[in-house]
Fold this protein.
Amino acid sequence: MEDIAERIVNLATKLGCEDAIADVIANRSYQIRFARNEPVISNRWRETSASVFLVYDRRVVASDIKDLSKVEEAVEGLVKVAKASQRNPEYAGIAKSPFKYDRVRPDPKILRLEDGSDYVEAAVAGALEEGAKECAGSFWKYEDEHRLVTSNGAVGRDHRASLYLSIRALTSPVSSGHGVACATKLSQFNPSKAGHKAGRIASLAKAPKPGQAGRYTVVLDHLIFGALISQLAARASAFAVLAGLSPLGRKVGRRIASEALTVVEDGSADSIGGRRFDHEGVPTRRKVLVQKGVLKTYLHNTSTAKRFKTRTTGNAGLISPEPHAVFVGPGDWSRDEIFSEVKDGLWLTNTWYTRFQSYVTGDMSTIPRDGIFRIRKGEIAEAWKDIRVTDNLLRLLKNIVALSDKAEQVMWWGEVEVAHHVPYALIKDVSITRSAE
Amino acid sequence: MADPDLVDYAVDYARTKGASYAEARYEQHRQQSFILKNGVLDALYSGEDRGIGVRVLAKGSLGFAATNTLTKPEVRATVDDAVKIARASVRKNPIVFAREEAAVTDWSVPEAKPLADVSIEEKIQEIRHVDDQVLSLGYKVPARFFLMSENRITKYFANSEGSRIRSYSPRLRFYHFLTVAHNGGVEQSHRDFGWSGGWEGIRAWDLTERVLAEARSMQRSLTEGKKSPEGKMDLVVGPHVSGIAAHESCGHPTEADRILGREASQAGKSFITPESLGTRVGSEVVNVVDDPTVEHAIAFYRYDDEGVRARRRYMYKEGRIHEFLQNRETAAAFGTQSNGASRAVNYNVEAIVRMSNTFVEPADHSLEELLEGVKYGVYMKSFMEWNIDDMRYNAKYAGREAYLIENGEITHPVRDTVIELTTPAFWSAVDAVGKDLEFEGGFCGKSDPGQALDASLGGPSMRLRNVYLR
């Protein structure tokens, strides 16, 4: 691993490439999947590969080399492919070092962790104590080492390790709750809390009634608000804007959300999405995406930054800019104050299947899952099922009334793909629809 | 040591380590793709992914480990990992597999014009031609996004029961995402094309004409489209909509692992229970199948990733729930046999129950006959936004290309047609099925880590009576 990245970059340069990046990655992750309260399979990976980006005469080629015993052959092949490809007039190079990286080391206790069974049992026990009958989910120990070298002088090493647990608890086939635990330090990992939360929501969600269409004031729990902000962060990638996959086009400097919303992207912060540098070797850093409702920047690599006459934000992926870790600035409302504000509305705890009718306008819908509750005078009046949020991404963000004063770190399958640190959100006038029979 | 030898070695070694069952799967994926975005070749991806995944059953628990370092010591360590983590799992209910015949065979998908023989220049030129043709229409198209990709998959599967299966499966894909604007209005569309075989697929798709037809319909929606009518009325849906409905509200809910709760935390469960076989969920004209043996469909295979021979499965037959999609683990739980539905996206993940080519079985009506029977309604030819709940019961499909039907005739485009129906309400309303079967080459997402797997979504046009549109 030590010299493979250097060999790739040196060879590419020797073969005439003007830019080259090699990120050699050793993946040593481990997972336990569980269902019906017991493990269903355990997985472990022993993979080492090189993620490669080469530019020959402005012809851009990317690859993953899996057979590291044939690196020279692979690079020569890639240069041949590049020569046969076409110039990208929008390509503007990669970032130039020198770069200085923060000293971040993974928790040695996580690195030493061999068996996650106790954490699965703690999560399941927590849910069962709350009344759950059936639990399913995943425990993850993520561990990967990166050795990144670029032809512009960046040389970096990053050893990342974190723990994650996702648990869904059910009290009946239609009554469920979900909880997650995320940590970069073993001492902060609390799967029992995630289990209790999932079980508690599932117990509250017993005997749900079919919901009613209408416009409601809605409290969004961490997972569903994380999903909403995840859409915002993904749509803030300059690549998405240029491809017509974003409602944020030409909106930098303009209001796109309520004044209550401030969103920061920060891969350098303590988070399971944390990393020392992006794919160009640029140190990750804090940047404000949305400040008091105003869009401040897109997420950039060097090429998209030049296109938008700005600087890279340190969010380069192999091909396009991407968020690493997202933080919503907490508000000054307590959780209880948020709920008390709801005279007649809903509490949504989770969602999935967020899809757009138009990415440019932001028209979309998403389907709440797990506990859905009718709230009257700040209290749960009844559990609901079978509803859909059918609205517009920017309208939802503009209708944020308040945020709670504490944020939780969440990540979840399909909907919150990188770490998001989010509080509870109170949103007014949310459009709810439901199926016709 | 050659890779097949390493696979055989992994299986034999796992047995010596105490695995009651072991399988190993070598996969090599030779991939090439490129993005043409707004006329610029953004980036070209070219890579070869390969490795070995080992799954063992030990003490009634499953362990899976994978490596891409193909040496005997590394494969040995990988097997040790799989056995160790399986043994560390404590289950009250031991996992067992349904018995299956061992298979020793080779299969491959023929390529009339092998993908490897077509230059990258020709491939880029083909898509550039599509882009040029779209521009030549003279519409305002602020965003044009084309993705061409191919994957040549070589596999070798072996298990401790004597199965030894080699296969080669070349696959070609094209995806387009278009944004057309007119007078402040915007229409967006994305479509997927899939093909098992060689470069001849590009001609079979009639790609340029299909993309141009899409762009023309988008422009027409913007210039002539009126608000879609609301209320209860008849609806004719095109193959694109039939296909997504077949996949989402027939295929997913009949996956046996979902019914048993194995995917409850992520992909969810199902409104179908183990006792639901024979239950009516649609009208008598509804037959929905999943068939890996449809030639040239993107999810074609002869044997699944547990070495079980593939066959056609009727999930809904004459409107009733007929069969679940099974792998060996779920089949044992149901007291039946696997029907060859076990697939993995690559060597480094376990094979689980998956759909392949899922479609509404065609009948004998022409589109004109379906429309003739409608006095007032909507023809929703394609959709853009869609979603469905995790029980696969409440689905929504929002129209992309849609038209008003009056007295059996299409009169003008309509915009923003929305179907939001329960699964039984949708399928029970079908009174006639067309013969114009088409497939979309899509992806299906499931499992953790996520496996976005090749899947065809298909069907003919269908007529639904008296459903609520908004």
The radius of gyration of chain B is 23 Å. Chain B touches chain A through 92 residues (CB under 8 Å). The mean pLDDT of chain B is 97.
